[in-house]
Design goal:
Elements (H helix, E strand, L loop, with lengths): L3 E10 L2 E10 L2 E8 L5 E7 L2 H17 L5
Antiparallel strand pairs: 1-2, 2-3, 3-4
Amino acid sequence: MKAEDHQRRRQTVEGWKISITSYRIGETHYCHIDNVSPGATIARASGPTREAAETEALEKATKRLAATRRR
């Protein structure tokens, strides 16, 4: 199978710069959120629509980044 409808954008959440990547394989949409600087995965999600997958991943990422201390 091949990834289709690939989209990538940058955003700031809880003061952290993140990269949001979403794509579709078959009938399922996937979303991957990572920290821009080191590229570490923060959250992943899947759903029937791009919006559902991105919403779920952003909720996870927001919780995790809010709990992360900055030095």
